[in-house]
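Sequence design from tokenized structure. All designs in this work follow the same two-part layout: the structure record, then the generated sequence. An example of the structure record is given first.
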């Protein structure tokens, strides 16, 4: 009995030791878990901090768009980059009514990367009242203002788009911004004179080229009408003389002054009309003959190729322009009721004249003087193809000087004045004739003749594509994914490793 009583304390001591051992083990486990948990929390905190930093960096960066279109539709072309690279003066590009994340702003920021003299700013007119009052814009205007000192151009949203012959939208943002930047930084200001007194088709009245004048105001050039009978001569600073559909013959003074202007290397833009039969205009014909152009014939050119017509009219000709500098990459233009240009092809060489076609019709087209009958081609109709627009370059040598000192005179002529009429460049009657390319063809012609080729519209090769172009928000999400997904994978791997290590 005493032996049993003596062994009992040993059992109690063993139990105490086991209890202490268990407590110590639990405490050790707790301590390890605490350490591991602390490390895990610390890692989580570090990862969260990294994600926050990445997010902040992505939002602060003005990222170049990730352009996944096959034709790089939203990437600034090398041509634009090269043209703006050497600009030495400060250019401010203000976006009014645009979100900072818009594709237009993203594209514009690439100009700054090409030349840091070009500053891009999205403004609120409530805060920038100086810009609002100076350019008469508000947040509702949706305008892009390109400014260099006292020179500026304002582009509105309608200026940034046009349509092809199937009424598909074409984005002109880059072309317009690049041309505008070059405009306002150019030292040369061209002087363009519109001959008056011989045509009812003018800039002054609605229905003619009234709306064209508003586009001319956006170009860096001086333009005004010229009545030679009043002025007495063509001014020495005339870079281009525009003649629009003479409906009466030139007087002797005007004829002599235009002839003198040509012999001095003058540049002429001539728009004719289907109704202006020039056989009774001998002085007008005399001027045209200097370039190898024969008298005009009253009548229409009709196109039989349905792929080259619009609105269901054979006389509404849609042309995909050629490769001349004037029409460089311009898409379709519409020539409505155009007449043909009669050319003395055999006499061009003797006149020292070379010709480049701008617009021609198919070989199956025809010309009809009787415009009241628009049915299919008939006996007596003149068969095509025909030239509707062309460039004539005339080399003029001074007999008293070496031929190396010769000058060149240029005539750009179209057998249609309607293509830049109010009804075609601003009409909302039918979307098919609301084609800014018509206006651009006119402005490009003036830029070409004034030797201001930087103003000639640049065109991208726009093709219909379903390729993806992310917005700025989508771009940021892509960058976040690129960085955060690997971090998340690393973190998940660490957690799994910790769990497996503890189970061992």
């Amino acid at each position: 009995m005493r032996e049993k009583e003596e062994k009992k304390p040993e059992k109690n001591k063993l139990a105490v030791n086991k209890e202490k051992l268990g407590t110590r083990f639990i405490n050790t486990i707790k301590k390890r878990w605490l350490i591991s948990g602390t490390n895990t929390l610390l890692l989580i905190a570090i990862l969260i901090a990294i994600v926050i930093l990445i997010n902040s960096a992505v939002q602060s960066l003005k990222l170049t768009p990730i352009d996944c279109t096959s034709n790089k539709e939203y990437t600034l072309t090398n041509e634009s980059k090269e043209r703006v690279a050497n600009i030495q003066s400060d250019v401010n590009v203000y976006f009014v009514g645009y979100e900072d994340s818009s594709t237009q702003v993203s594209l514009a920021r690439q100009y700054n990367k090409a030349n840091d003299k070009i500053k891009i700013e999205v403004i609120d007119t409530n805060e920038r009242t100086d810009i609002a009052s100076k350019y008469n814009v508000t947040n509702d205007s949706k305008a892009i203002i390109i400014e260099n000192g006292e020179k500026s151009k304002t582009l509105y949203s309608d200026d940034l788009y046009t349509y092809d012959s199937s009424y598909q939208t074409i984005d002109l943002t880059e072309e317009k911004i690049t041309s505008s930047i070059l405009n306002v930084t150019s030292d040369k200001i061209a002087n363009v004179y519109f001959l008056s007194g011989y045509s009812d088709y003018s800039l002054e009245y609605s229905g003619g080229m009234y709306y064209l004048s508003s586009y001319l105001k956006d170009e860096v050039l001086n333009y005004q009408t010229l009545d030679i009978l009043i002025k007495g001569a063509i001014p020495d600073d005339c870079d281009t003389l525009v003649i629009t559909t003479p409906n009466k013959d030139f007087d002797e003074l005007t004829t002599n002054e235009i002839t003198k202007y040509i012999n001095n290397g003058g540049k002429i833009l001539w728009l004719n009309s289907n109704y202006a039969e020039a056989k009774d205009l001998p002085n007008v014909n005399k001027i045209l003959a200097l370039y190898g152009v024969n008298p005009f014939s009253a009548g229409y050119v009709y196109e039989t190729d349905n792929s080259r017509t619009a609105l269901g009219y054979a006389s509404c000709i849609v042309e995909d322009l050629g490769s001349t500098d004037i029409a460089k990459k311009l898409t379709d233009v519409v020539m409505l009721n155009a007449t043909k240009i009669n050319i003395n092809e055999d006499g061009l060489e003797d006149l020292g004249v070379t010709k480049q076609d701008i617009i021609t019709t198919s070989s199956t087209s025809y010309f009809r003087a009787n415009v009241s009958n628009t049915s299919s081609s008939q006996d007596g109709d003149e068969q095509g193809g025909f030239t509707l627009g062309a460039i004539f370059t005339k080399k003029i040598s001074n007999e008293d000087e070496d031929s190396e000192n010769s000058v060149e005179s240029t005539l750009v002529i179209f057998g249609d004045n309607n293509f830049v009429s109010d009804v075609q460049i601003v009409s909302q009657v039918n979307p098919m004739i609301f084609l800014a390319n018509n206006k651009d063809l006119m402005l490009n012609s003036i830029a070409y003749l004034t030797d201001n080729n930087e103003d000639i519209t640049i065109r991208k090769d726009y093709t219909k594509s379903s390729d993806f172009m992310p917005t700025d928000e989508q771009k940021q999400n892509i960058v976040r994914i690129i960085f955060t997904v690997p971090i998340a994978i690393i973190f998940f791997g660490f957690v799994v490793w910790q769990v497996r290590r503890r189970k061992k």
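The chain has twelve helices and 19 strands. We note this feature because it recurs in several other targets discussed in the main text.
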